Description:
This protein is α/β, with parallel strands linked by helices. The chain is built from eleven helices and 17 strands.
Amino acid sequence: MKFSGIAAAAILGAAAANALETISAVGNKFFLESGKQFFVKGIAYQLVEEDPLVDGEQCSRDAALMKTLGTNTIRVYHVDATKDHTKCMNAFADAGIYTLIDLDTFDTYILPTAPSWNQTQVDAYAAVMDAFIKYDNVLGFFVGNEIIAIANQSLAAPYIKASVRDMKKHRESKGYRKVPIGYSAADIAELRPMLQDYLTCGGDDSQNVDFFALNSYEWCDVTTYDVSGYANLQKQAVNFPVPIFFSETGCNVPGPRLFDDQQAIFGKEMSSDWSGAIIYEWIEEANHYGLISYGPPVAPTATGSNIRGGFSRAGTPTPVSPDFNNLKSQWAKITPSGVAQSDYSPSLVSTRACPTSTQDGWLVNGNVALPSIGQVFTGALSTVPIATPTTTTTSALGSAATTSTTKNPAPANKEIAGMSAGLAGVMLFFTFWL
């Protein structure tokens, strides 16, 4: 069969975007189509707030350097569903790099103090999924990032679960491949164990996350697995029913960053239960978490399409020394063996008990009814019968026995829409669902 030059180019472009094996979540692990277990070695990638995946030349430069680092995944916090992302997605696919995409937009983020889940949000989330589902190097979608950041915000959890439910409905109604859908949580000791259990409890996988991810900055050099708090995180991940991984990590106190935690995450201590880590972040900014820079800082008042906040956000990426090479050295030593999918028989589906409310912050009592689209939140949550799973496994430490010390809080100026509004005040609602 003969093809015109234009048709051939279009086909080649589509093939480039689909050059990698797709990834699925099975039990608490990720697997490639070939059956090999996949571990995330990722970088948080958000050069500009609105969408870093529209400049194909910039993506090509960054992807090439990421490949030398050993990166196989990037996380992108916000995208514009109306833009063409093919060149960037091709560039990362050519470098063997998968993507994790946040579905929320700047005006559809679920706010923690006044949560809502309405048709506008559903449509916006679905538009992002529609725009990216065609790319085989999409590893997964996040329905939210650190929506619950302090104790009184836990009443937003049913809205997170409702967004998972409706994005899964959209995925199924369109006949899309089952790209995993999950959530990225803040590392809050009084909330973390309950939230991860809540998002995977109740026996109904149609509304449970396909993976759970954690933004944690507990391991600050120089420390150890036990002192850092990672030992507690590991205890809470044992027999978890879905993949769990770090969606942000890389404490920079006191600096330079040594990334010693990577040996624990990918080593014998944690690799049987954890699926890897994403390092925060690619670009150097005022918070000094960057692995690369596009040039020296400029005056905060400087203007230009590629200058924001006193830093250039495009150009030739230059490694930040010694952090870049320190991470490269750590990842070069990582060889998690994993397990072949053919040898893996998970029995972990919906095994977590729905947590009860606690005095120190978790306010959702059991398996509450989820809000329907457009249902107004008024505070008190009614419970529904909990489906009986095949087996029952409660949180390893229980809801109140968890303690950890976060030595360095998460970076303050992450590109996360909605958080400033969500943290402006703490509002509790104590009536009923309408």
